[in-house]
Amino acid sequence: MTPPPSLPEHPAEFCPVYHAIGILQEKWVLHIIRVLLQQEMGFNELARAVGGCNSATLTQRLEHLERLGIVSKRLEDGPTRLGRSVYALTPAGRELQVVIDAIGNWALAHLPASNPSLSSTDAPR
């Protein structure tokens, strides 16, 4: 049986799958999208919902997703001088619901039930 041809590390031509994986594989991106699929949120609320992501990284990821047209940001006037930033998914971002659902369905079918005592390196392969 011959092995499948190997994929180049960096495709010479534009490959939409390669490009999308490059964006979605960044740490915290899918967590941010998953949370924002539930509802729009302010920065601090989003930080708590994502859990474990430091503010600088969260800011960087949100700015990148905003530049890509996946997340939108609006400023709400608050009772104090400073307004509040509210983040939501754009229509393109909401289309990622099918990706999140597919990952969830795959995980339910192929991964053991969650066990917090197992680290990712301890999980069966």
TrEMBL record:
InterPro entries documented for this protein: ArsR-like_HTH (IPR011991), HTH_HxlR (IPR002577), WH-like_DNA-bd_sf (IPR036388), WH_DNA-bd_sf (IPR036390)
Keywords associated with the record: DNA-binding, Transcription, Transcription regulation
Cross-referenced Gene3D superfamilies: Winged helix-like DNA-binding domain superfamily/Winged helix DNA-binding domain (1.10.10.10)
Span of domain HTH hxlR-type: 15-115
Recorded superkingdom: Bacteria
Full protein name: Transcriptional regulator
Organism: Deinococcus piscis
